Amino acid sequence: ALTIGIVGLPNVGKSTLFNALTKNQVLSANYPFATIEPNIGVVNLPDERLDTLAGLFSSERIVPATVSFVDIAGIVRGASEGEGLGNKFLANIREADAIAQVVRGFSDGDVVHVEGRVDPKSDMETINTELILADMETLERAITRYEKEVRGKKLDAAVLASAQEALAVLQAGTPLSAASVDLEPIKELGLLTSKPFIYVFNVDEEILTDAAKKQQLADLVAPAEAVFLDAKIESELIDLDPEDATELLQSTGQEESGLDQLARVGFDTLGLQTYLTAGPKEARAWTIHKGWKAPQAAGVIHTDFEKGFIKAEVISFEDLVETGSVHEARAHGKARMEGKDYVMQDGDVVEFRFNV
Ligand code: GDP
Questions:
Q1: Are 86 and 79 in contact (CB under 8 A)?
Q2: Which residues belong to any copy of the TGS domain (predicted)?
Q3: Residues 160, 113: contact at Cβ < 8 Å?
Q4: For residue 230, how far is its CA from the centre of ligand 1 (angstroms)?
Q5: Binding site annotation covers 103?
Q6: With bands split at pLDDT 50, 70 and 90, how would you rate the model's confidence at 239?
Q7: CA-CA distance, 225 to 222, in Å (whole number)?
Q8: 3-state DSSP assignment of residue 79
Q9: Fewer beta carbons under 10 A from the terminal one: N or C of the chain?
Q10: Which among 17, 39, 89, 111 is the best mutation to test ligand 1's pocket, defined by most ligand atoms within 8 Å of the CB?
């Protein structure tokens, strides 16, 4: 599953946001995994096309794509120093595909800020420095081990070289995502600063409705994506019925909830897209990487679909809606038979043909 880890200073609203995420999961009846773990929060990727498809096919249920949030790690200045404590703390985050950094933008005198004042820029620097230090520690340990293994001819010297190169980048204060080191050989280390980053600004209503202020904050983190939300409002939204939720959102100048935005941005940051399937049982979105070809995409449904792939019948969502049915789409030449080299497009409605 595709996962995002949450980091941030204490008292910035991580738990509040995570609670909203985990409550959300309980309500998401279509959550496709059998065992729901308490420390995983799931958001559905909002996709109105699924409602349309479910209407066309009289589908019994809708199964949207999801993004999972795995864990939260509170990080304070110096966290990476204490006997690898920081490292242990970050174990789950290391396995995540991306990191969402929650940054406090709300000012509430009752909620103590660990560093004494609300200053998003300085907070982000603190966190990013700690992540760089944590990666350096990981690399230093790994390098000691790699050196022994290379001497004993148990390890390719390229792995050691890659680790040394990465360490040099970090020593210069640069996160790995901003450098051009080949990290493939040391992927197992799960280096934090090599992961895509999303910045989640937890702000109050005043900032939510202030486009200029939001732009200012977004500029601080560009080219990384920024999401603006009010964690307290998010946790309230979860308990409201859809109409009241829409009303509350509109009263704070938002069109969609922060959790929805987070899912969308997370998906994008991870380089993902969906294709769609529809039938009387379900209208469903399947998660793939951008650029995947038809057989690989088929493999997401079932490995047999990939192994026995023959071809895919593809109708674009727009064409399907315009013609009104698969039958009509075929009659109008809008259904394409695509082979194994076809690169999947966002919004393809697909039926795979395969050998068993
Ligand atoms: P964490 O330490 O980062 O997990 O922070 P928490 O989620 O525990 O939040 C710390 C305190 O800030 C709690 O008392 C929250 O109720 C409060 N808080 C969280 N988000 C907001 C917010 O958007 N606005 C305000 N005013 N308070 C918030």
A1: yes
A2: 271-354
A3: no
A4: 9
A5: no
A6: confident
A7: 6
A8: coil
A9: C
A10: 111
Structure-block tokens of residue 306: 């990939």
User: How high is the ipTM of this complex?
Assistant: 0.96
Phi-psi region of 111 (alpha: psi -120 to 50; beta: other; left: phi over 0): beta
Q: What is the pLDDT of residues 260-311, one digit of tens each?
A: 999 999 999 999 999 999 999 999 999 999 999 999 999 999 999 999 999 9
* 16 Cα to the center of ligand 1, angstroms: 6
Question: Can you tell me the mean pLDDT for 342-356?
Answer: 93
pLDDT at residue number 29: 42
Tokens standing for 75? Answer: 């990080």
Q: Which of 212, 213, 259 is nearest to 236 (CA)?
A: 259
pLDDT at 329: 97
Instruction: Please name the residue that has the structure tokens 């950094």.
Output: 101
pLDDT bracket for residue 119 (50, 70, 90): confident
Cα–Cα distance measured from residue 8 to residue 115, given in angstroms and rounded to the nearest whole number: 13
9, 16, 108, 207: residue to mutate for ligand 1 pocket, most atoms within 8 A of CB: 16
Ligand 1 centroid distance, CA of 342 (Å): 47
- Taking only the tens place, the pLDDT of each residue in 179-216 is 999 999 999 999 999 999 999 999 998 899 899 999 99
What residues flank ligand 1, with Cβ below 6 Å? 8, 10-16, 74, 106, 108, 111, 202, 204, 230-232
- Does the pTM surpass 0.80? The reply is yes
From the CA of 13, how far away is ligand 1's center (Å)? 4
What count of residues does the chain have? 356
Rounded CA-CA distance 351/353 in Å is: 7
Q: Relative to the CA of 233, which ligand 1 atom is closest?
A: 23
